[in-house]
Amino acid sequence: MQYKLKNWQIVLLTLLVFIIISIFTFFLLKNNVKKLNLNNSSKIDISKIVTNFKENKKELNPLYESNNLKDIIILVYNEDSTYNSYLINKKTGETNTFLDYINNKDEFNNKLTELLNLKYPYFIVDALTNATQSYFVKDTEVTIYFSNYSIENYSEALSLTINYQEIKDYLKFTPNLTETYTNEDGFNYDQSKKTVAITFDDGPSRKYNPLILETLEKNKAHASFFMVGNMMASCESCVLNTYNSGNEIGSHTYNHLNIKTNSKTKVEESLTKTNDIYHKITGDDIKLLRPPYGSYNKNNLTNINLPFILWNLDTEDWRYRDVSHITEYIKNNVSDGSIILMHELYETSYEALEEILPWLYLNGYQVVSVSELASLKNRTLEVGSAYRSLK
Ligand SMILES: [Zn+2]
């Protein structure tokens, strides 16, 4: 049986054939135009330039090589223990450095300082101001390696990786922009590093709380504050600022109560009252207890619904009120997992903190809150237990 095409089907078929021929012709022409353009305007043979460049480096092999960007070919070498990136212009064949492709060096440097401050404590950033920089350029980011800076007794390699999103306004080449990335952050603590917790008791102090928070912040450190309920009530902003700055607040009872020598009812009252104030200010509940005087018994451990946080390094800062006593004590006794006891109320404690945080950093320690220490050590703080350190 024969099938006969209807009129409308013939029209449709003709139209289809016409469209196919048109598309085919278009691409054929387009390709020819491209070829013509190349022959006319670009007299350079970029692949030959790249080959020559590599041959001139003789026995060196590039660590990284990319032809993915619109304007440049990237070649990165390790030469005399520093990374050198060569950016070869695809149109001119010219070879330049990364800095040659930065169009506003002042703004770029400001951005660099801003990002360094996210990653490193203030004194490291200061030391890097006049350091030598070398660049490892990639498609989506550049890593800056620093050398020739002087920080006494410190030999860690310092570097900063910057995603091009952060500096796209200053780049003279077109980078590959990634939608999601994270800047390097000094508060992202590292499980492989030595870690200690610093704790401040008996606050908040209207005078020293803001100073201590600022010192912690600029040193990329956190701490735990075991606050007294009635003092929380007298400086609510201290509580809120401590809470909002990534630091931790635990209970030190309402009136600095000795929980070992007081009745169960009195202890309960004191803890509930403290939590109520804390909850009113932060909307959160207290998760840790530091018994005043470090004094407690088995009944307390059974009755109180919070882990007890003690310490293994007592600076006796309240007794000596002496900066060098505090710092020397910590330097001589600190080890991985230590919980250090200090108090929020004394000028000398705050000054000792200013001094000891850089020392701890330079000696490979990160300083965190008690809960962060537990989490970095894969430990769970349990109700009914008391902790003196967290190894
Ligand atoms: Zn106390």
Structural features:
391 residues, alpha/beta, TIM Barrel, 2 domains, six-stranded parallel β-sheet, four-stranded antiparallel β-sheet, 14 helices, 18% strand, binds zinc ion
Could you give the order of the helices and strands?
HHEEEEHHEEEHEHEHHEHHEEHHEHEHE
Question: What is the total domain count?
Answer: 2
CATH superfamily of the largest domain: Glycoside hydrolase/deacetylase
Spell out which ligands are present: zinc ion
Q: And the CATH topology of the largest domain?
A: TIM Barrel
The whole-number mean of residue pLDDT values reads 93
Tertiary shape: elongated
Query: Runs with pLDDT <50, length 5+?
Result: 36-40
**Individual helix count:** 14
The number of distinct β-strands equals 15
Structural class: alpha/beta
CATH architecture of the largest domain: Alpha-Beta Barrel
N-to-C CA distance: 89 Å
CATH hierarchy, class of the largest domain: Alpha Beta
Largest sheet: 6 strands, parallel
Give an overview in words.
By secondary structure, this protein is of the alpha/beta class. The chain folds into 2 domains: 45-184, no CATH class; 194-387, TIM Barrel, CATH 3.20.20. It has 14 helices and 15 strands. It has helices spanning 7-41, 46-56, 105-119, 122-128, 164-167, 208-218, 229-234, 236-244, 264-282, 298-303, 317-320, 323-333, 347-362, 370-376, and strands at 64-66, 72-79, 82-89, 95-96, 132-137, 141-147, 158-163, 194-201, 224-227, 248-251, 308-309, 313-314, 339-343, 365-368, 386-387. The strands form 4 sheets. Strands 8, 9, 10, 12, 13 and 14 form a 6-stranded parallel beta sheet that branches. Strands 1-2-3-4 form a 4-stranded antiparallel beta sheet, with no helix packed on it. A 3-stranded antiparallel beta sheet has the order 5-6-7. The model is unreliable at 36-40 (pLDDT under 50). The structure holds zinc ion (ZN).
